[in-house]
Design a protein that fits this description.
By secondary structure, this protein is mainly beta. It is built from no helices and eight strands.
Length: 147
């Protein structure tokens, strides 16, 4: 007998969810061959295309993206935990639609024009030599951020 208050887990773990760790993805087009939902830990993505890709239910932990294009990617529900973007195109991405739990990103030489960070806690944000034309930081905590 299950004690009162202990029911079925409302967030069951899918047996089809992947958990790639320490994998290098190179020159891949994830719009044509979508990335599977799952947790990608310590993975590296080089020269990959995410144009229009649906990254919902993807969790990136300690991941690195270099020379990737995220134009019009769907990132609602995408978790970014200690993720570094380098020389990437992230134009118009609504980062404020990503789950805030452990959200931490770093940008180096990226294009972030019209990206939205509205209402986020970005005290640990590092953004070096990046373009931020029209980016929305309204009501954002940038207390210790480096822009």
């Amino acid at each position: 007998m299950v004690p009162e208050g202990f029911g079925v887990n409302p967030y069951p773990i899918s047996m089809s969810t992947s958990y790639p760790c320490d994998i290098h993805f190179e020159d891949r087009d994830f719009a044509a061959a979508p990335l599977e939902p799952g947790t990608y830990e310590a993975c590296h993505f080089s020269r990959c295309q995410f144009v229009g890709a649906d990254l919902d239910e993807c969790v990136f932990v300690d991941a690195h993206f270099a020379q990737c294009d995220f134009t019009q990617a769907y990132v609602t529900g995408t978790s970014l935990r200690d993720v570094h973007f380098e020389d990437c195109k992230l134009i118009g991405l609504p980062f404020d639609s990503c789950p805030p739990f452990l959200f931490q990103v770093q940008f180096t030489r990226c294009r972030l024009d019209y990206a939205s960070f509205a209402g986020m806690d970005l005290r640990k944000l590092r953004c070096e030599d990046s373009q931020l034309i029209g980016a929305d930081f309204s009501s954002t905590n940038l207390g210790q951020a480096s822009l």
